[in-house]
Specification:
The chain has 6 helices and 9 strands. A 3-stranded antiparallel sheet has the order 1-3-2. A 3-stranded mixed sheet has the order 4-5-6. Strands 7-9-8 form a 3-stranded antiparallel sheet. The protein has 3 domains: 49 residues; 79 residues, GMP Synthetase, Chain A, domain 3, CATH 3.30.300; 65 residues, Ribosomal Protein S8, Chain: A, domain 1 (2-Layer Sandwich). By secondary structure, the protein is an alpha+beta fold. 42% of the residues lie in helices and 30% in strands.
């Protein structure tokens, strides 16, 4: 990945200059901003380290290929970038290994690729890895489960603690029940044993 460095006294002008030079929009870059406070009679300096999202996507694919080749997996990729999130869908002749038990391998690959980019740029990117339509099915399952639990909680007025989930899964549950009348959700516990508790809401 090629890193572009820009520095100046005006925060907005520095970033706009970078976008103009690179002919890109803000959604097409990932950047790290460093602020150096000026001393007496000296103004603050802003330093931007910028990398193109397209190059990050290719770098992530390279990281994945290195890992998955070592697992003797032949994988094809579909990539897209939307709202500053890198989406990579993987297709293999052994999707079960790619996904892992309860999606653990897929989650581990996501963490590894995020860390790899951070090591290069100093910023964690938004990366969404999927295997065919595994996450779509996962979302549907979690949303259905969350709604069923919410109905039970609303009827019994008794909180229900769901099983431990990662942050991605918890966010799905929170979003699914965000507008569910008479219900509120809270995340409790410490990683990796953090879970969602569905509670009755006293209006």
């Amino acid at each position: 990945m090629e890193l572009f460095l820009y520095e100046g006294k005006d925060e907005e002008k520095v970033l706009n200059k970078a976008l103009e030079d690179l002919s890109l929009t803000k959604d097409e870059i990932l950047y790290k901003k460093e602020t150096k406070k000026g001393g007496l009679f000296k103004s603050t300096t802003y330093k931007y380290t910028i990398v193109k999202m397209e190059e990050i996507t290719e770098y992530v694919k390279t990281v994945l290929e290195d890992i998955l080749t070592g697992m003797n997996l032949n994988v094809k990729y579909e990539t897209s970038i939307r709202n500053k999130q890198i989406n990579i869908k993987m297709f293999s002749d052994n999707n079960a290994i790619l996904i892992g038990k309860n999606g653990q391998t897929l989650s581990a690959l996501t963490l590894l690729t995020k860390q790899a980019v951070f090591n290069q740029v100093g910023v964690f990117p938004y990366i969404n890895l999927d295997v065919e339509n595994y996450k779509d099915k996962q979302i549907m399952h979690l949303e259905r489960l969350a709604r069923n639990i919410a109905k039970e909680v609303r009827e019994t007025k008794t909180p229900v603690t769901m099983e431990n989930m990662n942050s991605y899964e918890r966010r799905i549950v929170h979003n699914a029940l965000n507008d569910f009348k008479g219900i509120k959700t809270e995340s409790e516990g410490e990683e990796p044993n953090r879970c969602v508790v569905v509670k009755p809401k006293n209006d």
